[in-house]
Design a protein that fits this description.
alpha+beta; Ferric Hydroxamate Uptake Protein, Chain A, domain 1; 3-stranded antiparallel sheet; elongated; Transcobalamin-like C-terminal domain-containing protein; Transcobalamin-like_C
Length: 356
């Protein structure tokens, strides 16, 4: 009896274990087909549901894209409308500016008409002529025998003598296109170049354009350039020029030099300063038909006062005409002298001599 009970309990235990282990009773074949059909139906239904969901998502995306496009189109339309409004405003402003300009032109025309009326009234007033001024002007001062000294700009002191002499040599030739015909002067009358009558026994001036230089005929003469008068007037000289004055006052010591037939005092000075590499600067003065010596050795006119400058004399006579018009001769003694008092301090005759 106990054995049966034990075997039954074992059977129950085994069945229980098998049940928990998932063992199921066999299913008939028909039931299996039914189950498979149900699974297939469920699968088809799930696929349909997935497709419906996909279509819904696509429609939503298209709607959102359409909304975005509509928003972009709206923005573009707004921008175009703003641009159109701005262009209309600018057109209105241009029309207003044009109207203002038209009004300004009208006012200018009225002003011009008023000015013409006032101008016509002014023109009716009596005019003062040059003859009236001349009649009321004070009588001119007595003519000086010394030609006026032309004020000219002075170059800087940094110029080197050699360069200045080369510059002067390029300008040495003084030519005129038309031949000047010397005019006869009466006593106490000046010629066309404002030259006072030449004293008796002194050479008459020869115009540079009439000179015929013959280099085949040469001769000797003496030449000197000095500024010794400055040694006793150093207080008048510019401080920057003190070192330019030689200790003995001789810039070019008296020396015999070569000259050619037909040359002038200016021609001789120009050549010798170039050869000695001494600075020299001049300017042509058509009023006197001659060259005017502004500076030698970087010492210029007016460096020692308003009455200072360079003068020349030939054979102890200060000619009353320019150095380009004095034709040299053999054995002439030429001196270029700096003066601080219009020649009075160097023995010059102001009534006869002249600055050069």
């Amino acid at each position: 009896m106990k054995k049966k009970i034990v075997s039954l309990s074992v059977v129950i235990i085994i069945l229980t274990i098998s049940w928990f282990m998932g063992s199921k009773p066999a299913v008939p074949v028909d039931d299996k087909n039914t189950i498979n059909n149900e699974k297939q139906v469920n699968k088809d239904d799930s696929d349909i549901d997935i497709e419906i969901v996909d279509n819904i998502d696509k429609n939503v995306e298209k709607q959102e894209q359409n909304k975005d496009l509509n928003n972009i189109n709206d923005k573009d339309n707004n921008i175009e409308n703003q641009q159109i409004a701005k262009s209309e405003e600018s057109n209105i402003e241009n029309q207003e500016d044009i109207s203002e300009l038209d009004n300004a032109d009208d006012t200018n025309e009225t002003d011009n008409e008023n000015n013409e009326v006032s101008g016509s009234q002014i023109d009716e007033t009596p005019k003062i002529t040059d003859d009236d001024i001349k009649q009321e002007s004070v009588q001119p001062e007595e003519k000086q025998h010394v030609p006026d000294i032309e004020q000219k700009d002075k170059p800087t002191n940094d110029t080197e003598p050699t360069d200045d002499v080369e510059k002067v040599s390029k300008e040495s030739t003084i030519n005129d296109d038309t031949d000047s015909v010397p005019t006869e002067t009466k006593d106490n009358e000046q010629d066309e170049y404002l030259t006072d009558p030449v004293p008796e026994g002194k050479p008459q001036p020869l115009e540079p354009q009439e000179a015929d230089v013959n280099e085949s005929k040469s001769f000797e003469l003496e030449l000197a350039v000095r500024c010794d008068i400055l040694l006793s007037n150093m207080n008048l000289l510019d401080k920057n020029k003190l070192e330019l004055v030689p200790q003995d006052g001789m810039i070019f010591a008296t020396k015999k030099v070569t000259a050619y037939e037909g040359e002038s005092v200016f021609d001789v000075l120009l050549r010798e300063m170039k050869n000695a590499k001494i600075h020299m600067e001049f300017v042509k003065t058509p009023m006197y038909n001659s060259a005017y010596i502004e500076g030698i050795n970087n010492i210029y006119e007016f460096d020692a006062g308003d009455l200072s400058g360079w003068m020349y004399k030939v054979n102890d006579w200060f000619p009353n005409y320019g150095c380009s018009r004095y034709q040299v001769k053999e054995n002439d003694k030429i001196e270029w002298i700096y003066t601080c008092d219009l020649g009075r301090d160097i023995g010059g005759d102001v009534s006869g001599g002249s600055f050069q």
